[in-house]
Structure prediction request, 177 residues.
Amino acid sequence: MQEGWQVLLTRARVLVSDWQAEIATCQFSGLFSHPLLMNPALGIDHGDARIGLALSDDLRMLAHPLETVAATKAPLDRICTLIRERSVDTVILGLPKNMDGSRGPAAQKVEAFATNLRSRVPDVKVVLWDERMTTVAAQRSLHEAGRNSKNSRSVIDQVAAQLILQGWLDSQSFLAQ
Prediction:
């Protein structure tokens, strides 16, 4: 009798596995789409030396660190490639405002970067998002996790991009309520 249950369980696992593969194939081919699934959004923390990137999930609920790009080595090429590869339709670019809300030289660099990005990917929405204190918050969270800032420079930029993107995602879910 026990062998019969094992056979049934094995068949059930095969059916579920086949079903999951079929859904994945349909999703990939565009035959099936869930109404809550969206294209992911890309978060960017622009710096003079490094650019941190983060990507949302398809439900646009959570932001995840993605990678760090050197700001001096044609970062737009890599970012545009990621946008195409990941089917990103919205980019959230951190705007480094001064504490009083004014825009200084760093914000002007980011605005110029946004203009260049918009010209390279005109079908993608580029949103400038206030990023005040995100790098400090990223450093603090990494420090609390036991990582020192010297060994975490590239990760700090990714976490800052994640915080920028998560702030925007949270604001969108709040607006939808």
